[in-house]
Amino acid sequence: MTAGVHETIASFRAAMDAERSAGRTVGLVPTMGYLHEGHASLVRQAAAGCDVVAVTVFVNPTQFGAGDDFERYPRDLDRDVEIASAAGATHVFAPGVDEMYPAGAGAGLTTVQVRGVSEGMEGAARPGHFDGVATVVTKLFNIAGPCRAYFGEKDWQQLQVVRRLVRDLDVPVEVVGCPIVREHDGLALSSRNVYLSPGERRAATVLHRALLAGKASLSPSSAGGTQPGDPVEAAKRAVEPEPLAELDYVEQHGDRLLIAARVGTTRLIDNLEL
Question: What global pTM score does this model have?
């Protein structure tokens, strides 16, 4: 059955209220569209844990900075509805920019800022990005109402930002992190992978290989001695031989190793639990 598509806040909010009034639990999967198997896995996990699943499709302009790819970000709503429906979604919320930001998405907009976890890494590389993420997610949670929301762990820092805002603002939403879905060669699925040329696509696997090298360095035998190595340095060394990859950062936070690099003109991120 094809999911019902809602283009207005009023329609989507009424539908979610009606589902809860009927005693059904709601699973929410926020996306920027151009769905792939990673998104589909979120929908399937939501469908396994909730009575109904709603997918939001909105390319949010407030999380794109100067020089980012907002205008060329891939969009295909019909395809998104087909993928979401096949994975188990019953509702799709696909508002326009004017619907979400009737007063405009520029200066003067009320914003949500999550300090601490939004700083460094993606926050440093893309100033204002997480303010845009936190603001639109807060809006989506307010529109959808009490639910269980599913986010992929590929955007690890984003997941921490969402968890913090839910906790700090007492939002009646349970946030569920879901495992990264990868191609056969380890490349994390991303809507931006479509930008990669064949050569860049092959080079992009260096991100996952670097993370694996970092994890392997924690084994004393792999480090060539009796003490474990430094996963950050091991990951950096793994990227160096790849001429098409320009490393942005490798950082370790707790048991998570995170990496960002530009492959050609496309910026990719990945992470791995150590």
Answer: 0.94
